[in-house]
Task: inverse folding
């Protein structure tokens, strides 16, 4: 077997120009796969960090309160008691916070825009300042009544700066409109799509806006020590809450604001609790990451097909060139299976060398882009959820790339190798050319 | 001594499109163990076809070819390959060495296919043969670093490394100058005498034929005669038409 490997390696070396060209093509596909998956993994990670800080916990215990069956508000009443139930049921908790939720119009002297409102108690938001960078002002000032933090793109549109006043207009759960005036205490650096529609305001002020009492919250954000536990914890929480007598909504993996219509159609009133995961809450953007991963795999497959055809052709040429050698080896007693093995090993070695170097190249390219802190256009920020490229190559994708692409290349070389092995020694030995 | 090769009424035909070309027409031949036998005849007489049939790299259209007591027509492809590996050594006109392997590896290759010896035993066997063919110092060279004569000596070593009962050589000196060709034949002859290996080689070089202890003459796919003993061989070389087949058979 070792000798077959040696023969394969030396044969590749003997035809090094051809090997180099094919190896480079395989390496390019591998590098592309690594680069694209690094981008999607980077996006996923960025999204996870950003989203789980800005608009969702790892798990969200929230729900709707309906005064009449056709009118819902995204609030939970008596949230402190609910928090205690959650704490008891989930020992995996790292920390939890409550947030107010709302959808409102903010108005400046020169413009207005619809935004999502998050009412926060900044003193309990452990991760907030790690994700949001204040370009001006002070994030801690969110503790002040009537304070709001907006992002730079929003500030540009509204033409406001720190210290300026804004008016917020929203529909209350009772169906009336209410307005309050707030002061911009900080302008945060854009963090992709999330910063386009998210704003943060003092939690107490948000309750004033929606005319909610002190015991009402928008959602309880639960952060786990291990995010991989979300599905298990979600199922347990739903069960525990139902056992404790809470009305629990059916599992619906969508963001809360996408559920208003269906909730309003349902024939019930009062409070119902919804338990969602971070992926549910940002399902509307997660498809971009899944799409990119899918695209990466698709592009790789298409390129692999093209390169596979090339490899097969080159293997044909190689086998034509070495037909007499095949005949000789068969004549001196090499079984068909070994001839097959010899050429398959050659394809395998070519694939392995190409994918390993391509994967290394992909890692190096990703590291270079990270080091360059490459800025992305605003339109791309919507999907990338960051103002700069974050590439995160993973060992899992590297292993996949090496195994998958090497496997494909080896499989492609099987066909000509099989036909070479089937040749009669006499036919092969008398081959000319 | 018994026959190591037995060919009886063998016909070999090749199809070239719709045309059937006969290469051998009812040939019979017995080869004893330890013979150093030459198959002589002009181009197209069927020398190579006969060697291919004896070497189990081709099968007869009709008739029986027995090698080392086995009817090759009844063996599977796998068993034929095993028979070639264990019983037959090949020396080709154009050497047919594997270009990417060194001299040592080329000679060692059949032993690796056999899987009978361990590394140390293989090394000892290969080096002993390379000593015999005078190429021990070239063990690490590649074939393209050797002269034609040296390459053919490597091929001889490779053919003998498995200690086969039969060595088949198809025009082994055709691509060599006369001095080198003579040296190769001397080498084959001495190995035949030392080890008792049966050598069957094709040639149309009279000087080479002189070394054979039997000459089988072919023409147009038919056996013209078989001369044994030095005098008979010499006579055959003079006239190339001495005894009829029936009288010449051993």
Result:
């Amino acid at each position: 077997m070792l000798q077959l490997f040696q023969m394969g390696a030396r044969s590749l070396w003997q035809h090094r120009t051809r090997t180099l060209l094919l190896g480079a093509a395989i390496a390019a596909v591998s590098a592309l796969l690594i680069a694209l998956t690094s981008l999607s993994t980077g996006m996923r990670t960025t999204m996870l960090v950003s989203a789980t800080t800005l608009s969702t916990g790892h798990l969200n215990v929230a729900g709707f309160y309906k005064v009449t069956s056709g009118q819902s508000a995204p609030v939970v009443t008596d949230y402190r008691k609910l928090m205690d139930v959650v704490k008891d049921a989930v020992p995996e908790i790292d920390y939890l916070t409550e947030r107010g939720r709302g959808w409102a119009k903010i108005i400046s002297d020169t413009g207005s825009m619809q935004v999502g409102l998050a009412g926060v108690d900044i003193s309990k938001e452990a991760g907030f300042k790690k994700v949001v960078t204040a370009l001006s002002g002070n994030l801690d000032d969110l503790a002040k009544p009537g304070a709001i933090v907006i992002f730079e793109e929003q500030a540009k549109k509204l033409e406001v700066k720190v210290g300026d006043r804004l008016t917020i207009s929203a529909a209350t759960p009772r169906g009336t409109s209410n307005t309050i005036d707030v002061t911009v205490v900080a302008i945060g650096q854009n963090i992709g799509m999330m910063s386009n529609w998210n704003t943060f305001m003092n939690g107490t002020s948000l309750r004033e806006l929606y005319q909610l009492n002190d015991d009402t919250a928008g959602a309880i954000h639960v952060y786990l020590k291990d995010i991989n536990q979300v599905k298990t914890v979600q199922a347990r929480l739903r069960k525990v809450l139902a056992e404790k007598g809470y009305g629990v909504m059916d599992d619906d993996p969508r963001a809360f604001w996408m559920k208003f219509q269906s909730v309003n159609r349902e024939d019930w009133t009062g409070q119902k609790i919804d338990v969602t995961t971070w992926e549910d809450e940002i399902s509307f953007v997660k498809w971009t990451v899944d799409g990119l991963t899918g695209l990466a795999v698709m592009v790789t497959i298409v390129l692999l097909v093209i390169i596979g055809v090339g490899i097969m052709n080159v293997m044909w040429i190689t086998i034509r060139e070495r037909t007499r050698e095949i005949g000789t080896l068969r004549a001196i007693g090499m079984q068909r299976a070994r001839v097959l093995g010899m050429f398959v090993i050659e394809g395998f070695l070519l694939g392995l060398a190409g994918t390993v170097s391509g994967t290394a190249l992909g890692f190096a390219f990703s590291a270079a882009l990270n080091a360059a802190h490459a800025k992305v256009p605003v339109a791309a920020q919507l999907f990338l959820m960051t103002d700069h490229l974050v590439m995160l190559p993973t060992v899992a994708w590297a292993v996949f790339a090496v195994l998958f692409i090497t496997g494909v290349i080896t499989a492609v070389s099987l066909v000509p190798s099989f036909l070479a092995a089937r040749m009669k020694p006499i036919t092969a030995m008398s081959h000319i050319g | 001594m018994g026959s190591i090769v037995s060919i009886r009424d063998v016909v070999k035909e090749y199809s070239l499109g719709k045309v059937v070309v006969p290469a051998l027409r009812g040939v019979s031949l017995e080869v004893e163990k330890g013979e150093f036998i030459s198959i002589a005849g002009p181009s197209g007489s069927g020398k190579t076809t006969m060697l291919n049939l004896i070497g189990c790299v081709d099968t007869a259209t009709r008739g029986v070819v027995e090698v080392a007591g086995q009817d090759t027509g009844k063996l599977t492809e796998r068993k034929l390959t095993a028979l070639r590996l264990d019983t037959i050594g090949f020396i080709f006109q154009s050497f047919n060495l594997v270009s990417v392997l060194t001299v040592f590896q080329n000679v060692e290759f059949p032993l690796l296919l056999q899987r009978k010896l361990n590394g140390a035993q293989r090394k000892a066997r290969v080096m002993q043969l390379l000593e015999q063919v005078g190429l021990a110092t070239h063990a690490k060279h590649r074939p393209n670093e050797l002269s034609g004569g040296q390459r053919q000596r490597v091929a001889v070593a490779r053919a003998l490394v498995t200690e086969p009962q039969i060595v088949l050589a198809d025009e082994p000196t055709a691509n060599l100058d006369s001095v080198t060709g003579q040296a190769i034949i001397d080498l084959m002859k001495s190995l035949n005498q030392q080890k008792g290996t049966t050598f069957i080689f094709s040639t149309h070089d009279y000087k080479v034929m002189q070394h054979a202890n039997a000459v089988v003459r072919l023409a147009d796919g038919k056996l013209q005669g078989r001369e044994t003993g030095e005098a008979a061989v010499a006579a055959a070389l003079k006239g190339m038409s001495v005894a009829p087949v029936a009288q010449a058979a051993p």
Summary: The mean pLDDT of chain B is 85.
